[in-house]
Amino acid sequence: MGNPVYLALDVPQLDAAVALCRKVKGHVGGVKLGLEFFCAHGHHGVHEIAHVGLPIFLDLKLHDIPNTVAGAMQAIHVLEPAIVTVHAGGGRAMMEDAKAAAGENCKVVAVTVLTSLDDTALNRTGVPGSAHDQVLRLAELAEASGLDGIVCSGHEVKAVHDQWKKGFFVVPGLRPGGKAAGDQKRVVTPREARDHGASVLVIGRPISRAEDPLAAAREIEGTL
Ligand SMILES: O=C(O)c1cc(=O)[nH]c(=O)n1[C@@H]1O[C@H](COP(=O)(O)O)[C@@H](O)[C@H]1O
């Protein structure tokens, strides 16, 4: 298996994002372009990053009525992303239509409970119980909707993997030992996530904000 680390390019400047990608190429398996990047640089920015030659994970967290989400999926076909995210909270019909509209080579994965939420913050959104149970419920719905997998934290990935053997599991909220969690609440190390069944490890600031991003990427690679 190749390097499972996808670098989250949550960097405002396009030239800085391209330079960072070039620097760590060979020590990450792909790059994740999220809302900050896409809102600032759109299709043009994705094309610029694609020239670096790493697989692209387009993390747009689509969440709308089925027709609108399917239209958005069709509009990003040309960018040939390897992975795209939608929110599981959009429901079964939305996920089914998103998958049907995605290209053949594009994995569609559902965001379950954001890694920035703990149980208390989740309960305040009106969802009772634990983040763990909600992730398992939404994973079941994503599988029934024909998606490839889900996004969850390293706290849940083992249980989800036990329930959905062939699922594709994206795990963010990763911090190599001792690194500041920041806004993340449900955090594990990259190695723990991998050992518990993660398919993709999403890592942003521990690499992008490191004094030496290449050294940070290499160090993480060495722990896997
Ligand atoms: O869908 C995601 O990638 C995602 C889901 C989630 O629950 N939590 C989460 O942090 N992410 C993304 O993963 C990345 C984590 O970045 P760092 O906290 O800097 O490593 C960010 O780009 C987030 O948008």
Automatic annotation (TrEMBL):
Top-rank lineage group of the source organism: Bacteria
A Gene Ontology cellular-component term: cytosol
Protein function: Catalyzes the decarboxylation of orotidine 5'-monophosphate (OMP) to uridine 5'-monophosphate (UMP).
Membership in a protein family: Belongs to the OMP decarboxylase family.
Enzymatic class: lyase
Pathway: Pyrimidine metabolism; UMP biosynthesis via de novo pathway; UMP from orotate: step 2/2
Residues reported to bind substrate: 10, 32, 115, 175, 184, 204-205
Catalysed reaction equations from the record: orotidine 5'-phosphate + H(+) = UMP + CO2
Limits of the Orotidine 5'-phosphate decarboxylase domain: 4-220
Enzyme Commission no: 4.1.1.23
Active site: 59 (for ompdecase activity), 61 (for ompdecase activity), 64 (for ompdecase activity)
Name by which UniProt lists this protein: Orotidine 5'-phosphate decarboxylase
Record has Phosphoprotein as a keyword: no
Organism: Aurantiacibacter luteus
GO BP: any one term: 'de novo' UMP biosynthetic process
GO molecular function terms noted in the UniProt entry: orotidine-5'-phosphate decarboxylase activity
PANTHER family: OROTIDINE 5'-PHOSPHATE DECARBOXYLASE
Assigned keywords, A-Z: Decarboxylase, Lyase, Pyrimidine biosynthesis
